[in-house]
Amino acid sequence: METIQRPNNFILHIIEQDLSDNKNNGRIVTRFPPEPNGYLHIGHAKSICLNFGIAGDYQGNCNLRFDDTNPHKENAEFVDAIQKDVQWLGFDWGDHLYFASDYFEKLYEFAVELINKQKAYVCDLTAEEIREYRGTLTQPGANSPYRERSINENLDLFKRMRNGEFADGERVLRAKIDITSPNMNLRDPTLYRIRHGVIHHQTGEAWCIYPMYDYTHPISDALEGVTHSICTLEFEDHRPLYDWVLDNVSVPCHPQQIEFSRLNLEYTVVSKRKLNQLVEEGHVEGWDDPRMPTISGLRRRGYTAAAIRDFCGRIGVTKSDNVVEIGVLENCIREDLNANASRRMAVLHPLKIIIDNFPADKVEELDAINHPQDPSQGIRKIPFTREIFIDREDFREEAPRKYKRLVSGGEVRLRYGYVIRCDEVVKNNQGEIIELHCSYDASTLGADPEGRKVKGVIHWVSASHGVEAEIRLYDRLFNHPTPNQGAGDNDYRERLNPDSLRTLTRCRIEPALADAMPGDRFQFERVGYFCLDQAMVSTDVPVFNRIVTLRDTWAKLEKQHPAG
Ligand code: ATP
Ligand code: MG
User: Fold this and answer.
1) Spatial contact of 232 and 259, defined as CB atoms under 8 Å apart
2) Range of the domain at 484
């Protein structure tokens, strides 16, 4: 990956300043801390590129740490999927793979330290009572009646919490900070809660008390020697608690928390909880459904890791909330594929053509270039035969003068082939066109003979040599640019786009595509960019996913009909 010449965002400025002050002895350690309660999405990619990018640019390292303190929502499938996705994006954590659960024993000892310093206490209030006592943004809270327990009583109760003597919710361990603080996060936050009967994917049944995120996170960072703990803006109000924890336990260092604004992307949701709902409720086929904004969905759709990294670079890192246009992401993959994807021909809505003056048993091998700007991709042969398919859209019985494709009695050039003329239109009883009879001009292969005026060039596939395929056309998952906005928390599902997947069967693809490997990407000329599906490999008929259209047709549409 290219190195950054000059700091181009506020976090890099902080890092450069710290380096010039020789803070942390010039070390840079970042971390990416996913909770394994779902698959990673494009928002996580922003955080991954930022954290691993900084480590790469400043000869530091970036830890992959699973923030696994909430076992009933987490599992090993997610742990594996997250590692696969980070690697696929092109990043390497080396030996630095950690689990917050690795620190459970140490976290317990630090909690004992807080109790001994009279900075934590066991509280017997119910969850509801704790909420009432905590007060509101406009009202100070009231101290818990259990706040002044003796050190010894607290130590005893905390130990018995660990030993499983109390039921879920019966007691919690709380920090003793300030119940009147204007910052709600400092009003004696809960540090530990009791959870029986869950099997943790790493620690099994060893624990029945689990530390809270706000307590676990700063200590995990410090134990790993993280220097810059970069997180999203919603944690800004938690920073005083982050610092309080580190100031009150004997950790080896005090990392700096820095917040940036999270990525929001138009026409989709980036929340694991909501994405999980879409999966669980069957609105999509799974976490890797090509319509999902997950890394696995984008990969299956045909996005390249390079395009996603490019996107994360373009959107930048700031502190202001915003929603990124989906066209920005689509342009990244379009540019990548335009430069790199081999060209092929595929007919999505086949209409048969019989070329009457071409011998029935003849197969002529025509030369086709694989990439117009990249000669190194070479050429391939495509068979030309008496019967071919063109797209129904490329023929009109009658058409306006501007129509550059085939019309009754008119001529068109077949891509890499001859000029043909439409002599006869055959219809069925319902008046539907079922095939065309054409003739070809044998003198028109290659360069146009002088003076010959053909209006257009269309793509085609040999009927006898082409291969049948299923083609899936994906559109936006939601038909609203900000599915969450102004809606109740779960109403976003009513904004799902019912036409987000259109499946075309019995499409025809040129024979060279029969050798494609799952994940291979192509430009189907005049149609779009497609990827051979990686999940449907055992089907008889190959399945191609549309990655993106050739041009940003939505931008044009939205100018005409702005989305409301
Ligand atoms: P979600 O709301 O999707 O569950 P999360 O923040 O709870 O996201 P985590 O697994 O805790 O998910 O996230 C791991 C890291 O990724 C955190 O540092 C978090 O700040 C960052 N992150 C999550 N979502 C985004 C986003 N949309 N943009 C940028 N960073 C994000
Ligand atoms: Mg989270």
Assistant:
1) yes
2) 265-342+469-560
